[in-house]
Design a protein that fits this description.
Elements: H1 11-16, E1 33-38, E2 45-47, E3 52-54, E4 67-69, E5 72-79, E6 82-92, E7 96-101, E8 109-112, H2 113-116, E9 135-136, E10 139-142, E11 146-148, E12 151-156, E13 161-170, H3 186-200, E14 214-222, E15 227-234, E16 237-245, H4 253-262, E17 263-269, E18 277-280, H5 281-284, E19 294-295, E20 299-301, E21 305-308, E22 312-314, E23 317-324, E24 330-340, H6 343-346, E25 351-357, E26 378-385, E27 388-400, E28 430-434, E29 442-443, H7 447-451, E30 464-465, E31 469-474, E32 480-487, E33 493-495, E34 498-504, E35 516-527, H8 540-545
Parallel strand pairs: 18-25
Antiparallel strand pairs: 1-13, 2-3, 4-5, 5-12, 6-10, 6-11, 6-13, 7-8, 7-12, 9-10, 14-24, 15-23, 16-21, 16-22, 16-24, 17-18, 17-23, 19-20, 20-21, 25-35, 26-34, 27-32, 27-33, 27-35, 28-29, 28-34, 30-31, 31-32
Length: 554
């Protein structure tokens, strides 16, 4: 590798990656790697001798660590150059967090863990940017970037609390990083404030590209059983915004649920035969069932429109179609922002992919994933080959249980009899295997923790949104449909050869109740040009089954 071509980053450059969607299309460099240190249950192991996983569904996830140093635990330790992108906790308390950079004896951060999510700055004004440090239904999140050149170690002192995630990226040797010193100079503070403002105005996000973008608008009637083209260009360019307007959000709840899944969107790049993007319309834009208002950085919707800010480059053309598997025509207006580019600008960029699926194991040995198998309860989110970046998921959950004959006086966790609360779907850990890892470099502590909220197994349940995570819908008692998103922008997961992403899913009746739990995922990632993925369109009747609509509406 030619070291002279490796980048030199300023802190402002790194802050920009919090919202730079175009950077997702840049191929990863050899040596670039992202992952997550968390407090997952360390009894889950891979047995190299047998080639099997043991205690793989263990769920005591609150206090795992790398090792102990005195009364402290080591939560993260990495050689640089690298970055901490996100710190999350369900229960940060008064025990201190101490962050050591580049083998220094003095920590750059030394404060109660609880305070870390509100303010930190050793000198000058404290950092406090609400869109970079959102609290999501009691889940504490901080996206204040912490770079290091040689080494980083994070200690959590006695009394720190319970549950943590720390997402990171390490870069190839030779990349130059500004080692964080615990202070923000004026330029760094302005960069953070700019990022916070970008994320606050996320539904109107757009970079101005070289040559200037062009906005096009088209209104089409998508016939029953047919399709309509909303974008068709030859040559090289990029799409940076798609807005779909229709009357779906003003229809009855049952009808909009049906139509948002009967209508599908597909995208083809560079005259490919198999689309790189295929999903039901509502699911692609990040919510189900039906139209559920929310705002994130890459996606969002309200009753009037849906928007996508994903960056989508192409070299030989792009074609976007809407297909209607229903029995009535549907009128749609599409506004699309694209920028003409030279072929040399786009040939080396990754291509955007997004696919919707249910229980799609592709070529995995499904026996290992059934209860009793060593890979249970892993459920596959994405299986991809080649080079690319994993960038997130919209997960639609349908979860039901039998309510108790007599409801307790309070809904507070711990006041219910155990069998009335064990229906909760969200205990599933995310596990990401990159480039053939035998043990995942990302191993989480629970599905709601992965999204960024916490302690969700107790009603009443809130809805929320933020730049990188949202819960556009959940029933008040969580008995029915749930819609959640987690988008990896700065903390995307690069892979050079393969990516296998899973989230745990417990089968119906596992919790000892007559419950049912179904997952449907729309996964977003980038993949090298000229390669295809293995996911195929799903027939409309299977898409509707997940909605549990009555026969009269089907």
């Amino acid at each position: 590798m030619n070291q002279t071509k490796l980048p030199v980053y300023s802190y402002q450059d790194l802050v920009r990656r919090l919202y730079d969607l175009e950077a997702l299309a840049i191929p990863p460099q050899d040596g670039e790697k992202s992952g997550c240190f968390s407090s997952f249950d360390r009894s889950s192991i891979y047995n190299a001798e047998s080639g099997l996983y043991e205690n793989w569904g263990a769920n005591d996830d609150g206090g795992g660590f790398i090792r102990q140093e005195g009364d402290s635990i080591v939560a993260l330790e990495l050689d640089g150059p690298g970055m901490i992108w996100r710190v999350w906790s369900a229960l940060p308390e008064e025990g201190r967090i101490r962050i050591y950079i580049d083998h220094a004896d003095t920590p750059v951060i030394d404060q109660p863990f609880r305070d870390y999510f509100d303010t930190f700055n050793r000198e000058g004004p404290p950092a406090n940017f609400p869109n970079l440090t959102p609290t999501l239904s009691r889940g504490r999140n901080s996206f204040i970037p912490i770079p290091f050149q040689k080494h980083c170690k994070v200690l959590l002192d006695k009394g720190w609390g319970a549950y943590y995630h720390i997402t990171y990226t390490v870069f190839p040797v030779g990349v130059r990083m500004p080692s964080f010193d615990g202070r923000f100079d004026k330029e760094s503070a302005i960069a953070l404030a700019k990022a916070d403002r970008f994320l606050q105005q996320r539904e109107t996000y757009s970079f101005v590209q070289a040559g200037g973008p062009i906005d096009e608008s088209v209104t089409v009637s998508v016939p029953a059983g047919g399709r309509a083209v909303i974008f068709d260009k030859q040559g090289a360019g990029s799409i940076s915004m798609i807005r779909i307007r229709s009357d779906l959000g003003r229809k009855s709840e049952q009808l909009q649920r049906k139509l948002a899944r009967q209508l599908t969107i597909s995208m083809k790049w560079d005259n490919e035969e198999i689309p790189s993007v295929w999903a039901p319309l509502g699911d692609f834009f990040g919510s189900a069932p039906g139209i559920k208002p929310y705002r994130s950085l890459p996606l969002g919707m309200n009753e009037h429109e849906m928007y996508s800010n994903w960056y989508m480059p192409f070299s030989e053309g792009a074609r976007i179609e809407i297909e209607n598997d229903g029995t009535e025509a549907c009128e749609i207006t599409a506004d699309i922002r694209f920028t003409p580019l030279s072929k040399s600008d786009t040939d080396e960029l990754l291509r955007f992919h997004a696919k919707w699926h249910r229980d799609e194991y592709l070529d995995l040995d499904t026996k290992r994933f059934k209860e009793g198998g060593d890979r249970w309860p892993d459920w596959p989110l994405l299986l991809a080959k080649g080079q690319g970046r994993f960038c997130g998921v919209h997960l639609h959950v349908y979860n039901t249980w039998e309510k108790p004959d007599e409801e307790p006086e309070t809904w507070w966790y711990g006041q219910w009899d155990r069998k009335t609360i064990d229906w909760w779907w969200g205990e599933g850990d995310e596990k990401f295997f990159v480039d053939g890892e035998s043990f995942p470099s990302t191993f989480g502590t629970g599905s709601e923790d992965y999204i960024g909220y916490a302690w969700a197994a107790e009603p009443p349940f809130p809805m929320f949104d933020s730049a990188f995570a949202s819960q556009p819908f959940i029933e008040m008692d969580a008995n029915g449909h749930t819609s959640v998103n987690r988008f990896h922008i700065c903390d995307n997961v690069p892979f050079m050869h393969s990516f296998e992403g899973f989230i745990e899913k417990y089968k119906a009746n596992h919790w000892g109740l007559n419950n049912e739990c179904l997952y449907a995922a729309t996964v977003y990632w980038y993949q090298e040009r000229g390669t295809s993925d293995a996911y195929k369109p799903v027939p409309w009747i299977e898409r509707l089954d997940h909605l549990k609509l009555g026969e009269e509406i089907r």
